Amino acid sequence: MKSTVKTAGIKSRKHDTPKLSRMHLAALATLAMPLALHAETTPDPQKLPEVTIEGARTSDFQIKKSANEKFTAPLLDTPKSVTVITSEVISQTGAVSLTDALRTVPGITIGAGEGGNPVGDNLFIRGYNAQSDTYIDGIRDSGSQSREIFALEQIEVVKGPNSAYGGRSSAGGGINLVSKTPKAENFFNGSVGAGSSEYRRVTADINRIINDDVAVRLNVMGHDAHVAGRNEVNGNRWGVAPSIAFGMNSNTKVNLGYYHMESDELPDTGIPFNNPFSTGANVAKNGDGTPISVPRDTFYGLVNRDFRKTQSDIGTVDLRHEFANGMVFRNVTRYGQTDNDYVWTQPDDSKGNTMLYGTVWRRANTRVTSTDSLANATSLTGSFVAAGIKHSYTGGVEISREETDRSSYIFTPGTNNPLTGTTTCPTSGAATLYNCTTTVNPNPFDPWAYTASVSPARTNVVSNTRSAYVFDTVEFTPKWLLNVGLRWDDFRTTMNVPAYVLSGVTTQAQRAEVDADFTNYQAGLVYKPSTNSSVYVSYGTSSTPPGNDGGDGLDAISTTVQNLAPQDSKNYELGTKWEVLPGGRLSLSGALFKSEMNNARVTAPDGTTQNVGKKTMKGVELGVSGNITKEWQVFGGYTYLDGKVANNGFVNTGTTAAPVYAPSPYNGNVFPTTPKNSASLWTSYAVIPGLVVGGGVNYVSKVYANINNTKFAPGYSRFDAMASYEVNKHIALQLNVQNLGDKTYFDRVSSPHYAGVGAGRSATLTANFKY
Questions:
Q1: Where is the TonB-dependent receptor plug domain (predicted)?
Q2: Cα angle for residues 335, 340, 346 (degrees, 5° grid)
Q3: Can you tell me the distance from the alpha carbon of 229 to that of 197, in angstroms, rounded to the nearest whole number?
Q4: According to DSSP H, which parts of 211-369 are helical?
């Protein structure tokens, strides 16, 4: 491996992403101009008949049928909680990343990076870690990354056990990203935006018909911005996503797509907690467990050291053939590679420095990782009538291989305090080699100068999966339907750490292996009081085997957990869905649910990990999307989550020689990363033709950062606003103001050491072009 020496920061070994200047952004914008001008000035060839789905959409805020073919009924008749974030919602709210868009859906918490948890899209759904449950067009998207939205048509959030749909999965749910693909029409959509905190963004979306059967589409994006209220934190990224479709006017269609995105940023450090002491002389100095009270722009990182560079490349071949009887055969092959390299300062409070000395240890979390994945999915979808009963079905097989290589950076000298030889920081400054800094007014430009190289300790994880599934919606009568699904998975993952020498010490090779097969199922009975409504009761299961993350997350394979069984969960749900007002233009939904995990992994008193824990989650969900009137659109919901650690195992309250076992003191505690109450609402109104005003609110109650329930981020409400004006049929201007009240809040809480700081007030003005 290549080592890099730098005294004013560290250079990634994989790829260097130059910072996007105004010239770069302008170049990305002009990249699309020849096609755009051609679309505007050249007469169209014969226009292909537009492909539509009956009843698929009634408003820009409402989708009536999932893009996922595993849903064999319209969303109204699907016995599961599903939220679809449309492109219009994404556009109006000013979202520019996946996490931005997901803030409009209550019940989802954005997690923070940690030592074993990479910086990236760390999602928790209904209190369960869903970091590995993101899919692109139904196929798992592996590797830690921060995802963009410039090439997405919509985002589908499925809540509840996800294993029947996706295989190894969490009990909380999953995210399906629906890609933009070529259409049977010529168009050019673009945007140029500028704003506070040095915000600059350009996008272009061009679709062209080549002939009767071929169309192409190109999406490009350039983005550069600082984070409002966090002066040093910034990032830039660019991406391109071309695709081409063959056979658009025939029974056999082939879509070829490619996605590339690179980012370069200075990652945020967050704010450490007021560390609470449970016993001893320091209890008098106890903190209250909330983030420490410092100005919002306080940054504990090192500008001359910290960085994060990512790169994603995904290629897809999607083949579809429609038979004369309406049955559809589909085969999708996808190859992807993601890189995630960083050195990121975590303000670690675990040693009590903040409360004891008014200092912070600059813990250097590092990662050098690359994930390659290859997947193939084959399915048959159709419907038939047998004995007077209609069946709408899909069935298929999936195979995949994921390989992750992971290492880290090492520094000479190390990152401990040289005065103590540990992470304890009674003092700070040059004498500590700037590894310790002050709690108040830390200097992010401290002259930190080290030699850095990639560690010889390298972890390689290979995961192979084989799956088969079938789903069927059985329509006994127009009022009674039964939705059933069954999936079998064979999951094998292997970890290898070759022997290596570091500082003259030889570490022996390690190997761990998980070989698990599991079957999951779901069943839901649907009663339709009317054609525009449904009431359902459903049951589903989920399996989370050791090594679920494929070697790049919290649920890593190790020698400690390799012999454990998959964690199994089951979910009960009672819900109702209604499409009201003329044309069913407004969708309403509500659900009561309960999930149980009876073999959760816990640490036993002897230090081993065992499947003896129990977790329970009870909750309520409400949702709304669509049009109240022709001019008035709404999108939002409310989620109540009552998550309990019912059984966290036992602890030894005696001695090693004379152990005394007692129930864990954490039994009955609240799930970490789980707000009891969360709600969001986005609404917009067309005041006059061409002028739309909108606003939104996000509310999240208190969130605990640890299972001890001693550290937490307070609840908050954030308000946003938007106004757009259509200058003419081709140009519209849109103003977004995020965090209107400039509220200081903490929106990323999953580490017990620090909380992520939400962005301050920002404003952006975007010119949207449409031809």
A1: 75-173
A2: 155
A3: 8
A4: 353-357
Of 191, 96, 218, nearest to 149 by C-alpha is 96
In this structure, what are the phi and psi dihedrals at residue 124, rounded to the nearest 5 degrees? Answer: -125, 125
CA–CA dist 12, 3 (Å, integer)? 9
Helix/strand/coil percent split, the chain, to 5 = 5, 55, 40
Helices of type H across 529-648: none
CA 535 to each of CA 80, 366, 391, 393, 472: distance values in angstroms, whole numbers, following the listed order: 11, 49, 19, 21, 18
In sequence order, which residues have a C-beta less than 8 Å from that of residue 711 and are 6 or more positions away? 273, 275, 276, 289, 290, 704, 705, 752
Q: How far apart are CA 117 and CA 337, in angstroms?
A: 19
Query: In a 3-state reduction of DSSP, which class is residue 64?
Result: coil
Residue 171 has pLDDT above 90, yes or no: no
CA distances from 646 to 171, 228, 667, 670 (A): 16, 40, 5, 9
Residue 55, pLDDT > 50, answer: no
Distance (Å) of CA 241 to CA 88, 135, 182, 254, 256: 20, 17, 11, 16, 11
| CA-based max dimension of the chain | 88
For the stretch 2-47, pLDDT in tens is 344 343 445 444 444 444 444 344 444 433 433 443 444 344 444 4
Q: Please compute, for residue 179, the number of CA atoms within 13 A of its CA located in the half-sphere on the CB side.
A: 26
Strand partners, 755: 271
Distances (CA, A) of 118 to 74, 335, 549, 555: 36, 22, 11, 11
Question: Around Cβ 319, how many Cβ atoms within 10 Å?
Answer: 17
Average pLDDT over residues 752-757: 91
pLDDT category at 464 given cuts 50, 70, 90 is very high
Write the pLDDT tens digit of every residue in 484-503.
999 999 999 999 999 998 88
DSSP-H helix ranges across 326-465: 353-357
Q: What is the mean pLDDT of the chain?
A: 89
Tell me, what DSSP letter sits at residue 548?
T
In contact, 103 and 97? CB cutoff 8 Å: no
pLDDT (0 to 100) of residue 7: 38
> Rounded to whole angstroms, what are the CA distances from 468 to 137, 487, 518?
17, 6, 11
Which of 758, 753, 342, 748 lies closest to 552 in space, CA to CA?
Answer: 342
Rounded-to-integer distance, Cα 252 and Cα 716, Å: 51
pLDDT at 550: 81
**What does pTM read for this prediction?**
0.90
Closest CA to 710 of 672, 676, 674: 672
Mean pLDDT is lowest, of 344-353, 400-409, 708-717, for: 344-353
Cα(591)–Cα(124) distance, rounded to whole angstroms? 19
- Rounded to whole angstroms, how far apart are CA atoms 342 and 368? 7
Structure tokens at 762: 């920002």
Band (636; pLDDT cuts 50, 70, 90): very high
The 10s digit of each residue's pLDDT in 517-558 is 999 999 999 999 999 999 999 999 999 998 888 878 777 788
**Average pLDDT of the residues in 235-264:** 97
Q: What DSSP character marks residue 584?
A: G
Beta pairing partners, 152: 179
Strands 108-110 and 81-86: unpaired
260 within 8 A of 325, measured Cβ to Cβ: no
Q: Where are the beta strands (DSSP E) in 498-585?
A: 500-502, 505-507, 510-527, 533-544, 567-580
Any idea how long the chain is?
771
What own/partner pairs with CB < 8 Å and gap ≥ 24 does 651-658 have?
651/605, 652/605
